[in-house]
Amino acid sequence: MKPKTQRKTKYPGVYVDLNGSYFYQTEFGIDRVTGKRVRKKGRKDINGKPFSSAFEANKELIRLKREFHKVNSYANYKMAYGQFMDKVYEPYYKTEVEESTFLARKTPLQIIRNRFDSIPLRDITVEDVQNFRTWLLSSKEDGGNGYSQSYASLVFGILRKSLDIAVEMQYLEYNISKKVKAIGKGKAIVAYWTKAEFEKVLQQIYIGDFYEHLNFVMLWLYYMTGIRVNEGTALWWSDVDLEKRRLRVHNMLILKNKQDWKRNFYTKTEDGKRTIALDNDTVKVLREWKRRQSEIGMGSENDFIFSYDGLPMLKSTISRIIKRYAKLASVKEIQAKGLRHSHASYLINEFNVSVLVLSQRMGHSSPEITLKHYSHMWEGADTVIADEMEGNIKIETAKETQIKFNGNQNLKK
């Protein structure tokens, strides 16, 4: 049995030899680049001075461990942002959001990639981030892309989130973008059609043509129900009960193209699953369209309502339809989601619907969400109440004071 040449101290990894000299000896872990174990042993501090105590040896060991982990954790310091996006962030992001959300974020992700692709992660500077922020907010005349503030906020937010993940994954020590002011979303008011504008649009549609008839049904159902765009494109005839006048909204369509789509059995939120009551006019419109579809072999339970060829309707097609008829009717062009806002406006202005009923019809998780998006539409809605308040309370005041003043002469006067 070999005699012991060293003994432990109270500090892990710190020893003292037979001569009373202190030293450290330990393994730091695995080098991420070479894959080899990293072992360290030393008897002197950073200044070359031998340790005079176990405390000094431990102090140096802690310093070396901290330095090693700092360097080793960020050993892949040459990784470019584009590589990080491909290998780390996009795969992570894809698992964190709905497929429809990920597909919708492809363009913002590409905008960021185009800007930072070849720059090493650790070389991205505050100036780089600030210049990107300025570019996002700049008009085309000033060298930018003319993005809306809400879209610029979205893109910049994704950049910040990606660098947060780089920190969590230990590719960076800190998120450099946090040193630059975030871009606020701004107050985004979505354009919508009033009742009068919608009526003008309908006057431009010739339902004698099969495709135009589809256009009419699509615009009508969105306007009269307030369903989300991908909720509408997912509708099958099995979702409609024409006898009970009910529309079941339980699905959303994830669609890359007309041949590559998926009908999910859930909506944007859990509260989005709902059943909407239909008016008789809408029931009549749907009955006639189903009969029209049946003439070409469609209209069965699992056929799309918004279809002329058995395939689902693209969101870009909906946008083109809106643009075409808006131009013909000489009304403002709106986005596809503007039809949802149009429905909210219609119910508020024509029927003074309560926020609770509107919230349930729109599939919001709470009335607070409804107010957040549509509170501006109730502006002026209390005018009728104000008019009715006039003369409701009889004004009759006392003919002389009932108060005896004590002290303040100014009040007596």
TrEMBL record:
Show the PROSITE patterns listed in the entry. CB, TYR_RECOMBINASE
Mind telling me which InterPro entries this protein's record contains? CB, DNA_brk_join_enz, Integrase-like_cat_sf, Integrase_catalytic, Integrase_recombinase_N, SAM-like_dom, Tyrosine_recombinase_XerCD
Q: Which domain of life is it from?
A: Bacteria
Domain Core-binding (CB) residues, every copy: 83-167
Q: Which UniProt keywords apply?
A: DNA recombination, DNA-binding
User: Per the database record, which ranges form the Tyr recombinase domain?
Assistant: 188-387
**GO annotation terms (biological process):** DNA integration; DNA recombination
Q: Which Gene3D superfamilies match?
A: 1.10.150.130, Intergrase catalytic core (1.10.443.10)
Q: Which GO MF terms are attached to this record?
A: DNA binding
* Keyword DNA-binding in record: yes
Q: Does the keyword DNA repair apply?
A: no
Spell out the family assignment given in the record's similarity comment.
Answer: Belongs to the 'phage' integrase family.
Q: What is this protein called?
A: Site-specific recombinase XerD
